[in-house]
Amino acid sequence: MNPGSERIFGSGVRHLADEDSGEHWLSVSDLMAGLMMVFLFVSIALMRDALIERDKIKEVAITYQENQVALYDALMTEFKDDLQRWDADIEQATLSFQFKSPDVLFDTGKITLKPAFQTILSDFFPRYLSVLMQFRDSIDEVRIEGHTSSVWNQRSTEEEAYFNNMELSQGRTRSVLEYVYTLPGVAPERRWVKKHVAAVGFSSSRLIENHDGSENFERSRRVSFRVITNAETQIRKILER
User: Fold this and answer.
1) Which of 17, 22, 125, 126 could hold 180 in an S-S bridge, CB 3.0 to 4.6 Å?
2) pLDDT averaged over every residue in the chain
3) Strands 222-229 and 96-99
4) pTM of the full predicted structure?
5) Which residues fall within 8 angstroms of residue 126, CB to CB, at 6 or more apart?
6) pLDDT for 177-221, tens place per residue?
7) Distance between CA 127 and CA 98 in Å, rounded?
8) What contacts 183, CB < 8 A, 6 or more positions away?
9) 3-79 vs 115-133: helix axis angle to the nearest 10?
């Protein structure tokens, strides 16, 4: 083959190679464009799912807030005339019905209900339960919470006082639960009470403070009935799905 032929054939070979290379890179470009479209559609689908989940959680939060207000209003309507004579109040933020007079509730260091507190509970709890039944589908738990001051006696260390008061607060709430559970007016809903009402002792972990930050020993000794709604459970189910 002469030099002219080599130049001709060489030129033709290089030309064919360039065409093959162009076709190769065109195929890769098409593939990359296709993958980018797939990623785009996946991203859009994920964003859509995230927005749907956000809307569901928002709906649960709105329902929770509405139920919170409605339940608080129902409790206030039922008990507004009793709060002062019972030395009790209802916290809207926590739906906690608090009995704040320790002299009426228990003797110092004892777990037995005083007669005056038994009388209050006999009136209070059947009516309280009747209000709750109107919202039973949105209630996860009702906690009978016992609270004490931070003191025990002068010889006790801080740790000893805490655990002695823990035993005391737990015993007191157990006594309250046992008493209200056996009330005749509660009989139709005892199965619900057994499943949803719990007795919890917090010892001195949730003290009431005075305006100057010091402990209010009197107000720290209290018993409360607190409603826990199922909003958190509903949100958790949405997230798990």
Assistant:
1) 125
2) 85
3) antiparallel
4) 0.72
5) 183, 185, 186
6) 999 999 999 999 999 999 999 999 999 999 999 999 999 999 999
7) 15
8) 121, 122, 125, 126
9) 130
Q: For the chain, which domains are there?
A: 65-240 (3.30.1330.60)
Q: Which residue has the tokens 């016992």?
A: 146
Asked whether the CA dihedral 180, 174, 191, 63 is positive or negative, the reply is: positive
DSSP sequence for 21-56: HHHHHHHHHHHHHHHHHHHHHHHHHHHHHHHHHHHH
Structure tokens at 235: 């949100």
Q: Which residues pair with 200 in a beta bridge?
A: 145
Q: Where are the beta strands (DSSP E) in the chain?
A: 88-91, 96-99, 139-147, 197-201, 222-229
pLDDT tens sequence across 102-138: 999 999 999 999 999 999 999 999 999 999 999 998 8
Pairs from 185-188 (Cβ < 8 Å, separation ≥ 24): 185/125, 185/126, 185/129, 186/125, 186/126, 186/129
DSSP string, 165-193: HHHHHHHHHHHHHHHHHT-GGGGGGHHHH
Residue pointed to by tokens 């809307």: 55
Residues in the chain: 241
* Res 64: pLDDT: 67
Q: Which residue has the tokens 């010091």?
A: 214
